[in-house]
Amino acid sequence: MLGARTHWGVRCVSGLSSSELGGSQSELSLSLCPAPLSPSTPELPPAPWIALAPRHPGFLPGEQVTFRCSAPPGQEVARYRFYRQPGELIGAGVPDPTGSTRLDLSAGPGTAGLYVCVYWARRAGREVPSKKSRPVAVSLIDHPPKPSVLLAPDSLAYVSGDRVEICCLAPPTASPEWFSFYQSGKVIGHQPGNTSTWQLDLQRSGTGNATRSFSCTYEQRIQGRPVPSHTSDPVSIPVFPAPAAPSLRLIPPHPLYVTGETVTAECVAPAGPYEPRAHRLQRDEEPGAEMLGPWHDLTVTPSTRGRYRCEYSTELHGRRLQSPPSPSVVLEVTDPPPPPELSVDSPSGVVSEGAPLLLTCRAPGDTTQRRFHFYQDGAELSPPEPSASPERRFPQAAPNNSGNFTCGYEEPVGGRWILSLPSRAVNVAVAGPPEAPASGGSTSTRMEPSSQPGPGGRSSAPRSLVPAPSAASRRSHPTAVVRGARGVPVPWIVDAAIGGSFFLIIILIFLITHVFL
Fold first, then answer.
1. Of 218, 299, 324, 427, which has fewest CB within 10 angstroms of its CB?
2. Is residue 479 included in any domain, yes or no?
3. Number of independent structural domains in the chain
4. Where residue 303 sits, what CATH number does that domain have?
């Protein structure tokens, strides 16, 4: 037989045969319905308490809802049951060590409603259901609509180190109390409701390009509780490596430079994905001038001294990128040492061919470490290696040693050998050697008779014997040939001197024979 009755909104079925339900009728009756009370049964056990945690006025989808049912003290509780009115059984449990039991639900569609609980107390060997608890209400609320996210500056490409501003735009009807910002799903910051932006310095991990995804939410109060909005649609951007700093080098590399020298500054960009388009050389804090190539020539002057850096620019997807500045390089400037004084052992500067020639370079000051250079007509004398000796000797002067001589010296300054200013030029002339007498020459003797008779009508005896130089003797007379500054002979000077000597001898003979005798 099949019978039915209602207990606390639950329709109970009894009278089913064991063959129809797969079990005994007594088992079915125990599991589904309490035993009927006789007229002598005492009043039902007092109602339990039902508590809701957390105590939200409304629950968001997916949040956990916890019910706890507790019987009054002194009751021997056999079991608990939870119902959603008007009588839907949603769970059952046995007492825990505290004497109560709990039920966890996940808020979602169909969760809203009124909930009660009941317990079964043991009395006289029977289980008697209690009165139902006072109901608790569960209501559902939804997340506010999603915002939108914008990035500034808006660019086709970003590089590591760029600062971007994330802007979270809530719908016009929303009343945000807080904004939350996310990168690749992880929270990166919060801002109060009157500040809807967040600034971030982009970073790139690894050596390749990276993609960054940004989103946001806002929070507003609904039914007395703060409720986060749905998450905005993400905005993804590529992040490229930033241009690396170049290096600056000076060519030639010296610890310091001398005024008048030319030094080349070269800005070397590191190997990588970027091709430099322009370079800029800066001195101290000056902005510097932009160059099309990596090289820049500097003429060293006192104002050239300073600390130099360089940078380069490139392009990425139409965006101009500027590299960081290179490490600074100091350019030190000094003046050359003062000029020395050059002297020759012949004060007149005329040296006979074959005679020794000595040049001396005297440097000012008292510096033991010096290296000397000698030059003839602007060319350094061979060998070109400098010498520690301030003298240059020529054992036998030759015609090709005639010319203008100068000298200079080097001394160590700041870790570098610095060449002095050149000395004043000294002119050296090498004179040729005397000519040898001609072989087979003869000298004739000519008698000079008196043109007047002597006293007493006697003929005058020969007064003197005057050697009459022949043409050959005159040609074979030793004559010194003077050479000019370039070793060219000048014979007319010697001939004039010899002719003047003969003329003087003839005048003396004439005076002796005609005046004194």
1. 299
2. yes
3. 6
4. 2.60.40.10
d(C-alpha 61, C-alpha 458), whole Å:
175
Sequence-separated (6 or more) residues with CB below 8 Å from residue 467: 443, 444, 445, 446
In DSSP terms, 466 is beta-bridged to: 446
Residues 414-432 as b or e (16 or more Cβ within 10 Å = b): eeeebebebbeebebbbbb
Q: Which residues contact 404 (CB under 8 A, 6 or more apart)?
A: 376, 377, 425, 426, 427, 428
pLDDT in tens, 38-74: 445 568 999 999 999 998 889 999 999 999 999 999 9
Enumerate long-range contacts of 414-420, CB under 8 Å, 24 or more apart.
414/255, 414/256, 414/332, 414/334, 415/255, 415/256, 416/254, 416/255, 416/256, 417/371, 418/258, 418/334, 418/336, 418/337, 419/258, 419/336, 419/337, 419/373, 420/336, 420/337, 420/338, 420/339, 420/340, 420/363
What are the helix and strand counts (H, E) for the chain? 4, 42
- Note whether 174 and 219 are same-domain residues: yes
Q: Report the amino acid identity of residue 150.
A: L
Pair of tokens at residue 442: 């003869």
Provide the residue range defining the domain that includes 420: 341-431
CB atoms within 10 A of CB 375: 18
Spatial separation of the C-alpha atoms in residues 359 and 401, rounded to whole Å: 11
pLDDT in tens, 147-198: 999 999 998 889 988 999 999 999 999 999 999 999 999 999 999 999 999 9
Q: Are residues 167 and 117 in the same domain?
A: no
- CA gap 392, 343 in Å, rounded: 11
Q: Which of these three, 225, 240, 255, is where a domain ends?
A: 240
Q: What is the C-alpha to C-alpha distance for residues 476 and 435, in angstroms, rounded to an integer? A: 9
Give Rg (Cα) of the chain.
62
- Tell me what percent of the chain is helix, strand and coil, each rounded to the nearest 5: 10, 45, 45
Answer yes or no: is 436 within a domain. Answer: no
Q: Which helix (H) or strand (E) holds 502?
A: helix 491-511
Does residue 127 contact residue 35 with C-beta atoms inside 8 Å? yes
Structure tokens at 295: 């090289």
Confirm whether pTM is higher than 0.70.
no
Q: Answer whether residue 438 is part of any domain.
A: no
pLDDT at 359 over 50: yes
Q: Are 127 and 120 in contact (CB under 8 A)?
A: yes
For residue 414, give both structure tokens: 């700041």
